[in-house]
Amino acid sequence: MKNKNLIRFVQSLVMLPVVSMSSFGNISNNNVIVSGISQSALVQQLNIGANGLLTLNKADDPEVLLQKTRVEKAEAIDAYFTKRDMPLKGTGMKMVLEAEKNDLDWRLLPAIAVRESTGGKFECKKVPNNAFGWGSCKIGFKTNEEAIETVARNLGGNNPKTAKHYDEKTTKEILRAYNPPSIVPKYAEQVMSIMDAIGEADVIVTPANNKS
């Protein structure tokens, strides 16, 4: 609406000389033609400028930047899985969204899956779709997506039944609760090493109008 009002305002300014010059007789037609061309060109430039401004604003919108960040994270996860031919490739975005929903490091779920089952290659045999070793391989899931949702909800401290183990804890503390050092001494360190191999903790997307 603001862009349309701006264009109308400029149009009114351009048309004023046309009206005033028409009283001079012989030169009116030429001036009308010239003014008409100038007006059209000016309006076109305003439209281009307005569209460009809208594009920049859209590119810098927090929701747009958030979505770009999600995509970069998901692509990093899927690239790690794909390079190693792991069955969980393609679940990157699901892992990112569930990690975000449960306030977890975006690399935690894929790293646990890699440590527990080589990204699904050696998932639990007695139950389906459990690449995380969840429930000591006694709990199965209908899909990998359901497994991701369940593990993320628990590790994020959002399941009342397990919250005492995971709520309000750092990533390292979560991992030590998930698989205590008394059982696997270097488990937390091993998973965190895989997390570093997947990508940096902070993924920063530069706004379009700030690119150098």
Strand percentage lies at: under 5%
Provide the low-confidence segments as ranges: 9-35
Find the count of extended strands (DSSP E, 2+ residues): 0
Work out the helix count. Answer: 9
| Domain unit count | 2
Kindly describe this structure:
The chain is an all-alpha fold and 212 residues long. It has helices spanning 2-21, 28-59, 62-83, 92-101, 108-117, 144-155, 163-166, 171-178, 187-198. The chain folds into 2 domains: 2-59; 62-198, Orthogonal Bundle (Lysozyme). Helix content is 61%, strand content 0%. The chain is globular, with a radius of gyration of 29 Å.
Helix and strand arrangement:
Elements: H1 2-21, H2 28-59, H3 62-83, H4 92-101, H5 108-117, H6 144-155, H7 163-166, H8 171-178, H9 187-198
Helix pairs in contact: 1-2, 3-4, 4-6, 5-9, 8-9
In short:
By secondary structure, this protein is mostly helical.
Keywords, separated by commas or semicolons:
2 domains, mainly alpha, 212 residues, 0% strand, single chain, 9 helices, Lysozyme
